[in-house]
Amino acid sequence: MRLKILAVALLTASACSRSSSPVTPSQGPQSPLRFSGTVSAFQGGHIGGPIAGAEFTVVKGVNLNAKTLSDSTGHYVFDMRESGRFTFVLSAPGYASTTPIVDLYRDMQADFVLKAQ
Q1: Domain CATH code at residue 102
Q2: How far apart are CA 2 and CA 36, in angstroms?
Q3: Lowest CB count within 10 Å: 5, 19, 63, 104, which one?
Q4: Which residues lie across from 58 on neighbouring strands?
Q5: First-to-last C-alpha distance (Å) of the chain
C-alpha cells in the first residue's frame, strides 16, 4: 500500500488504510512491518529538494523511542517490531517540526514535506 502525506508547517497528518476498518495482523510469528518514504523541503511556495538527516522519533504508542534518520536523498525506513497506532515527531534543523499519527498494520509508504522556518 502506498499513501502520500504532506505535512507542511505544524500540520498533523494521519496515515491510515483506505478500508473502513484496519487490517488485523494474522496470528503467529510476524516479520517486521516497514514504514518508509521521503522527506522534502517546502520553501518559497514550492516543494524543493530532499531533506537529509530529518529525524523520526516514536513518542507515543507501540515501538516507543524507535528512531531513524533520512539519508542524503531524503529517504527514511522504519522496520517496526509491532503493528498498531503510534505518534512520532518529525524534525530537521531549519524546518518546522510536525507530529503525525500513523496506524500501521501492513507495510506503508508516506512522503512528508517540511516548511522552512
Answers
A1: 2.60.40.1120
A2: 10
A3: 19
A4: 88
A5: 32
Cβ atoms of 106 and 40 within 8 Å: the answer is no
15-72 pLDDT, tens digit per residue, is: 333 334 444 444 444 678 999 999 999 988 899 999 999 999 999 998 899 999 999 9
User: Tell me, what DSSP letter sits at residue 62?
Assistant: T
Q: Is residue 13 part of a domain?
A: no
Q: What is the DSSP letter of 24?
A: P
The neighbour count for residue 15, using CB atoms within 10 Å, is 18
Distance, in Å, from the CA atom of 61 to the CA atom of 77, rounded to the nearest integer, reads 18
pLDDT tens digits, 79-88: 988 899 999 9
The count of structural domains within the chain is 1
Which residues, at least 6 apart from 90, have a Cβ–Cβ distance to it below 8 Å?
Answer: 7, 39, 54, 55, 56, 97, 98, 99, 100, 112, 114
**Residue 90, φ and ψ in degrees, nearest 5:** -110, 120
A 10 A CB-CB count for 95 gives 20
Q: Residues 59, 74, 80, 98: what is their CA dihedral angle, to the nearest 10 degrees?
A: 20
